[in-house]
Design goal:
Rossmann fold, 2 domains, eight-stranded antiparallel beta sheet, five-stranded parallel beta sheet, 13 helices, about 45% helix
């Protein structure tokens, strides 16, 4: 049995947990080949960050509703908008509660264990805090409190196990475990899933299936995969933040809000990759025209392009005059689609090969990652930042 801890940064890199490495983690958990341990501080560092992302969107909606009610409108429309504001306000707490409920349900699905803060942790924490013992970088450095609680959870867990895997890109936290031989580290989830640790567990799964036959079956069903991938990409890209030097905002950032995903997405089956078990990732690329929204304090009040003038709205934000601009841009988008096949649908004692086409009807197809979104003919392939778009 593999025992693993994920740091909060790993969850924040893929908050929806839809990537191929996370899907492999789920399959291993459900198959009782892996136990995921989540320290209390990891859980709530991730959840509070996630709830703040939702809150930011909710605040933006509330601001837009308030602004709209101040515009010239009929009394009937204003009353309806006021009613919508009441409905929206009543839903806000429920939405934020759902974030934690969704994460708890995911943990239950894979059998994850939440490692609580114990009463005796307080004394050990105080000793480390006042002496500056690792993981504290120096005496009385309060910023390291979360890492210290995670450290105590991991140390106590490691003392009960032969080996423990810790996935974190926090070099300071890794340094704190120096000298503890039964804890191994990976900087990211993909490296862990591709490691020999996982490969040895997957050998028996891979021995039961014919990979060439499965890959050929996936290729035969490329139109089904394309159709579902188009729907998933439409959802994944809405509100997606992009950064590109050809965007005319002050920080070259914009947000997607209106587009039509083309049906002829290019799936590069030549580079289909087996992640282990029955999880595969397929590179994709396509082009599309999309409307983007951005704010600019530098754009002129008029342009030589008449259509561009129609897109400009002058407004005030944080006591600064800015232009709220909607512009249509040609975009190039690349990434990976994940295809996951559920072998549990095969009747007991039956061969995988006899049910491949039927299994494909129920295959889970999703967006593993959006690797790059750039304006067509842009000279620099800018990537979106972790912080998102500053609205």
């Amino acid at each position: 049995m593999i025992h693993v801890i994920l740091d909060s940064t790993i969850f924040r890199q893929d908050p929806k947990r839809k990537s191929a490495p996370f899907q492999m983690l789920v399959k291993l958990g459900i198959a009782h080949q892996l136990v995921l341990h989540i320290p209390y501080y990891v859980k709530y560092e991730f959840l509070t960050n996630r709830q703040e992302e939702y809150s930011k969107s909710l605040r933006a909606i509330a601001t837009n509703l308030n602004n709209l009610t101040r515009q010239p409108l009929s009394n009937k429309l204003k009353d309806e908008l006021e009613g919508q504001k009441l409905v929206f306000n009543s839903l806000t707490p429920e939405i934020l509660e759902w974030v934690e409920h969704d994460f708890d349900s995911w943990c239950d699905e894979i059998g994850a264990m939440i490692r609580p803060i114990e009463n005796h942790h307080g004394l050990k924490m105080s000793e480390m805090y006042f002496t500056g013992k690792a993981p504290f970088r120096k005496q009385k450095f309060r910023e390291d409190f979360p890492d210290a609680f995670i450290y105590l959870n991991a140390i106590e867990l490691a003392n009960t196990l032969d080996t423990l895997v810790f996935v974190t890109n926090d070099s300071q936290l890794q340094k704190a475990f120096k000298g503890i031989s039964n804890i191994s580290f990976f900087d990211n989830l993909e490296d862990f899933i591709r490691s020999e640790t996982i490969a040895s567990v997957l050998e028996k799964f891979d021995a039961e299936i014919n990979l060439d036959s499965i890959i050929n079956t996936i290729k035969r069903n490329k139109y089904q995969i394309k159709d579902i991938a188009s729907e998933k990409l439409y959802i994944a890209l809405f509100g997606y933040g992009i950064t590109d030097p050809l965007i005319k905002s002050d920080n070259h950032q914009a947000m997607l809000f209106s587009y039509t995903i083309p049906s002829d997405i290019n799936l590069d089956f030549k580079y289909i990759e087996h992640m282990g078990g029955v999880v595969f990732i397929i590179p994709f690329d396509f082009q599309m025209d999309a409307k983007v929204h951005y704010k600019s304090t530098e754009s002129p009040l008029y342009s030589d392009t008449p259509d561009f003038n129609d897109m400009i709205e002058i407004a005030e934000f944080r006591n600064r005059l800015y232009r709220a601009i909607e512009e249509e841009l040609p975009l190039e988008i690349t990434g990976h689609i994940v295809v996951s096949i559920d072998l549990e649908r095969i009747p007991s004692g039956k061969s995988v090969l006899d049910y491949l086409d039927e299994l494909m009807l129920y295959a889970e197809i999703d967006v593993s990652e959006i690797a790059n979104v750039r304006v067509k003919n842009s000279s620099i392939p800018y990537m979106p930042t972790d912080e998102g778009i500053d609205e």
